[in-house]
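Regression check, alpha-D-galactopyranose case 473:
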Amino acid sequence: MGWNNWNAFGCDVSEELLLTTSDAIISLGLRDLGYDYVVLDDCWQDANGRDKNGKLQPELNKFPNGLKSISDHLHSKGLKYGMYSSAGEMTCARFAGSLDHEVDDANSFAEWGVDMLKYDSCYHMGRVGTPTVSFNRFKAMSDALQATGRNILLNLCNWGEDLVHTWGMSISNSWRMSGDIYDAFTRPDDLCGCNTLAPGDVNCVAPGTHCSVLFILNKVAPYADRSIPGGWSDLDMLEVGQGGMTDEEYKAHFALWAGLKSPLFLGNDLRSMSPKALSIINNPAILALSQDPHGRSMTRVRRDTNVAADEWGIGETHVWAGHLHNGDQAVILVNFGGKDIDIKVSLAELFIPFGPGGSAPHNKFDWAIHDLWAHRMSEATAESLIAASTEPERAAILKAANWYNATEIPYEKGLREEDPRLFGEKIGVVKAGGVLKEKVKSHSAKVFRLRRVKKEGEVFKGKSIDRVTKDEL
Ligand code: GLA
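Current build output:
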């Protein structure tokens, strides 16, 4: 979790941007929700290329005090420092890339105190086309980073090429699986390559840019389950707060990225945050999906394309679901179509991974429905948090709102201790063998945590429901 400058600022980067943004991360309470990586994307390099010793160098007009001073500053604030390069001759913005300079550059990153490297794939010099060729190109940097002895996360950015979801986890911590996101929910755009691929076809040659939230979800759906603790599909940086989507669309985008365990990199200008955007990204009940200790992505249970279309000719609904560490089940019902729709899903269908055809033990219990947006921060509180000018003032606002602080209570502990701030609000029950049915407005999502209703004297006391087999019932 953290922030990356690319979506809001592109190449307009500077020391000042990073430092003022890091102040905002802290004062808005975002660091204490887990957003602790500040990532400098492309365009930090000197346009004249490497120095006479072959080392990458920053553009001094943008970074007058060099890069180590930035990481020192971030570390002193309890934040981490992310940087960017490309496994190519040049980066995507045509600055010097790291291909065949991996050891030198990894050493520079380590010297600069870098904690994460986003590693792009532009200008790869033709070293692409099969999984092995791409794997070797990226592995060179993975090995070089490891050899520095510094713990540096590696975030691959080859847009899903060469089946990265089949090998990314062995050399990196996350891998981008699509072309670049843009600030649109369903709108198709020719700049997003392969937007006419059939569902399930992962062979996209020119992934491009301007990929919508829906496009990215459809692309990752066939292999969402490849995310494992320590290695995650990266759905790209968030667009929340950028202005191109509605509040409901941003809520859906954010919850899906959290539920699918994508890295959560905020992509908006944190120094001019709107109260609405803040109250989306700071919802601890949604963040607890992202940070759930079980560490598996939600997967798509159902996609229905036979629904009323929106203004872009898109009409589809999705049901996404996933198991959580404490036995709860996360469920997201999304309506990408043009009309409000009742979306239904049975317990039998939700729990197919535990036994097909309604045979899962889970199907025999009642499940309480918890709405995870129920305790979204009020607009008035978010507004006063943004407007407050001193640290004590902000701390008082967060305290009065009883806001979750993951620095004090890590999510794993909060979940274990059933901190109510992570569980939304109970709004109903799905009876054993029953069906979850909810009205979902056009271009929005409902986000639930289903909690098994424990029965007095139940036979499975002391034993997690996940370990109960059909035969034991
Ligand atoms: C590629 C990446 C983006 C961004 C730019 C920078 O397009 O996919 O996320 O890093 O390069 O040039």
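Comparison notes: The chain has a mean pLDDT of 95. The pocket of alpha-D-galactopyranose is lined by residues 6, 41-42, 91-93, 120, 157, 180 (CB under 6 Å). No diff flagged against the previous build.
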